[in-house]
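To: structure desk
From: M.T.
Subject: fold request, one chain
Message: Could you run this one when you get a chance? Sequence is below, nothing fancy, just the single chain.
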Amino acid sequence: MAFAVKKLNRGPPDRDTGFERELEAMGDIKHRNIVNLLGYCTTPYYNLLIYELMRNGSLDAFLHGKARESKILDWPTRYKIALGAARGVAYLHHDCIPHIIHRDIKSSNILLDQNMEPRVSDFGLATLMEPDKTHFSTFVAGTFGYLAPEYFDTGRATAKGDVYSFGVVVLELLTGKKPTDEAFLEEGTKLVTWVKGVVEERREEYVVDNSLGSCPVDEVNKTFNIALMCLETDPFKRPTMAEVVKMLEQIKSEKL
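Reply: Done. Structure tokens follow.
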């Protein structure tokens, strides 16, 4: 069995206490769409996390890196990745005790196993939600292009912020574009703003990744609409991840 090792520099005592607390929670997380933590090692200078190795690397590499040149993701695979990743995040939000906010959901943190099944990874920035604070954490972390707008207003990381970040990942799957593509930066915009502008003009077909070729338009459109729900500016209007999973599952079940 092959392993992946993540090295983390040791910090102040309070940070290391948080590290150990996080490890305790991570050891209990068992889900087919979550990267399994197999073990860890501590030294005076750094900590090591040992994970199972994901053979196909990250979603980011498949969509934007060299992997894209050798293998194009077809629609069934993209749908499978969206649904699996949603199930993984929903598990963190709703089934873990205490609930967990990931805080850095992005395509490079969604890894793909040998069967292209997605696994949500990298809980280095994850926050355990206390029983009496089940909706937010006061420390903000994340990646530009994926951050929900309220982060900049409230300074709080929330479960609904994860929902927003997941919506950005779904847009990546649908458009094949990076959230901070150079073309967007040159125009002073970003993926979410660009897509919403196209939708307002009722030209949704122009944003779908050309490499998808022929694909079920109704399934793509429904997935598109779910992404837009996740990207509502008002966090209270966004669905929960459990609701996102149900909506994605219904796309296929309606055809059965």
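Reply (cont.): Residues 56-253 form a domain with the Transferase(Phosphotransferase); domain 1 fold (CATH 1.10.510.10). Let me know if you need anything else for the meeting.
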